[in-house]
């Protein structure tokens, strides 16, 4: 069978640096006119075919991006809205749990079953991580749907619940608060702990707190939350971008905290309430060292590594309450409970609810944007102890039907 002869178009010519070239023009994927040149019409024809193929592919990929391509675009759009640390977390989770299993697929090809299969490994992770990845998946696919890149959104009907529930952190009891404060009274984390327990500020709000937002010489002393602390490459970054709009608030503080802050302010050399030796806000590693003063005084089992004959050996320590650290006899294992920075805030909120403060006021003082967060804590505080409910139940069934 005779090979069909290719009909090569009649191209125009142009002289460039004394050499004659064949020339044609095509429209690229962005709608711009592009010139193509070659020394022979056959060569130009091949160039034109390849260029048109690339344009068609680019147009197709814009209308049919892969999951990886659209995730990258979505993250770029988020970079103008969220902090660098939040974006870093989004990027890491998206690459590990969305792009790896789904990245090579076209968005329009992904089904609900593909989403469920991608979420299976997360069922063995924490509920918090599962929820975050689930949120990222839905944001990406809902965004693609709004931009008419999908005829059907595969995330519809995907459950937001999954993963292993984490260990529940309860509020500290009055006895635990007293022991904690006695343990750290002369130690660096004391002021941080006092602010957390008696104002309920988040960690990033405490570490960004400056004296111009601490009002002690007024009839009702209060703290004004206006800044947040974050870190980039271990360096502190203080900004006026708070976690939510509700985070901006004025919090009246009790006398014990006001007195503590007056003492600190009298000797402070910094504009920051919590600062390093040079008066600067703490870096991430500095805060971790600050909190270690609490960790090393607890009886929680922990591990460490030591070198013996050039080999790294893993060792376990199970502190005994009232015991002393081997290399530091002054350090006493006095905390028979675990405590985290966030528990200070949780304890503050819980104590407000125990004191009968209405949930709406607690929502404002805590800086909760969503009332559900406050009400979940409220329900836990009010309804988790049978002895508190006995009178309610007795009243409800004091006159049984037919008695």
Question: What does this 3D model show about the protein?
Answer:
The protein is of the alpha+beta class and 403 residues long. Among the domains are: 12-63; 67-146, DNA polymerase, domain 1 (Orthogonal Bundle), CATH 1.10.150. 44% of the residues lie in helices and 15% in strands. The protein contains 14 helices and 12 strands. It has helices spanning 41-63, 67-78, 84-102, 112-119, 127-146, 174-184, 190-199, 203-206, 255-267, 284-295, 341-354, 359-366, 371-383, 386-396, and strands spanning 12-16, 19-27, 33-38, 214-215, 222-225, 228-232, 235-239, 249-252, 302-308, 311-317, 324-325, 328-332. A 3-stranded antiparallel sheet has the order 1-2-3, with helices on one face. A 3-stranded antiparallel sheet has the order 4-5-8, with no helix packed on it. The chain has a two-stranded antiparallel ribbon with strand order 6-7. A hairpin with a 2-residue loop joins β9 and β10 (311-317). α2 (67-78) packs antiparallel against α3 and α12 (359-366) packs across α13. The longest helix is centred in the N-terminal third of the chain and has 23 residues, at 41-63. It is elongated, with a radius of gyration of 31 Å. The mean pLDDT is 87.
List the helices and strands and how they pair.
Layout: E1 12-16, E2 19-27, E3 33-38, H1 41-63, H2 67-78, H3 84-102, H4 112-119, H5 127-146, H6 174-184, H7 190-199, H8 203-206, E4 214-215, E5 222-225, E6 228-232, E7 235-239, E8 249-252, H9 255-267, H10 284-295, E9 302-308, E10 311-317, E11 324-325, E12 328-332, H11 341-354, H12 359-366, H13 371-383, H14 386-396
Antiparallel strand pairs: 1-2, 2-3, 4-5, 5-8, 6-7, 9-10, 11-12
